Sequence to fold (103 residues):
Amino acid sequence: MKIKIGLLLKIYSISIIGLGAATVIFITIFLYKNLYQAITQTAIIYNLRMELAVEPVDIELFNIITKKIKEKTTRAETDWGGIRNPFSFGPPSPETKAEETKK
Fold:
């Protein structure tokens, strides 16, 4: 079986072109992820630093305000035993009567 040189050269040239294209794509993606995005993020951080507040924060006032917010948002524990069941229609059950006599 003879291998034609022309066919071998075509396969070789197609494989070289494909390998070269794959290399160019890989290098482009690598540079985009590791170089361009890093430069872009650095520029964003630099711009955000320019927009930062220059005034110092009063830590004592901040702590007072957060304490008041926590006091407003925390609520007392609910005594679920003292709340009447709105879904019970009719006379109370014997268990409920026993609990009420204990109190």
Observations:
- The helical segments are 5-50, 59-73, 94-102.
- Residues 89 and 96 are 13 Å apart (CA to CA).
